[in-house]
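Quick note —
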Amino acid sequence: MARFTKERTELAATLRWAARLGLNEGICNHFSVAVTAEGNQFLVNPLGYHWSEITASDLVLADKDRNVLEGGKQVENTAFFIHSRLHLASPKARCILHTHMPFATALCLLENGRLEMASQNAIRFYERISYVNEYRGFALDNTEGDRLAAGMGHHDVAFLGAHGVIVTGSTLAEAFDDLYYLERACQVQVIALSTRGKLRRLPPEIVRNAARGMQEDKREGARLHLEAIQRILNREEPEYAN
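Predicted structure written out below.
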């Protein structure tokens, strides 16, 4: 196998698991992991592959200048311009996950759509979300990638108007854990609103205190979550690691 075996195996695992959860969209959307301190080289899923069939060796190693360094497969243009610019703008964002997952994207379609602090899962994202409301079409150049990076700023999550979400993390485990719980939080909010009832927002002081506690325990929980996913895949789809 090519270099970065651990990173490749974990990335293939999260792509496969995301497909099981219905977080993918056809062969579109992208996950990437930076492999240099500066973020100028990163692993990313290749163009034309469904997430459910991805293996570790399928992943492409690309650089900031659109060169494929390992993998011999193409990288989708929008994947390159979103992920390369975000990795460069925020080297601490070691992992970048971009999806059109349905419930989070549903909130991106609403006027002033927000993840409200009304559920325990939502509290996890207190003051961690940026809302980039203006939609300007496909990301087909550095300008659009830079705009999204600037709109995201120091936040870990971005809701993109009429588009989808971006979730970043200092590790793949943390980013994927956040992606999972973000969709769950959005799902229960959409379900609650579908009843036509009024959301019961939690008191700010309770939200702040609970969010602080959640962040303290986040890293270990994320690690255990990814390990559990890999154990299941090792039994049921072991070829993902090839």
